[in-house]
Amino acid sequence: MDHFLRLAFPLAAAATLTGCVHMQIDETAPSLETLTLLRTQAVPQITLGEFKEVGGTSFARNINVRGSTLRAPGGGNFADFLKKSFQSELVAAGTYAASSTTAITGTLEESRATEDMAKGYASLGAIMAVSRDGTTVFSKRYRAETRWRSDFIGAIAIPEAFRQYNGLYSQLVRTVFADPEFIAALKK
Question: With contact defined as beta carbons under 8 Å apart, do 111 and 81 qualify?
Answer without folding.
Answer: no
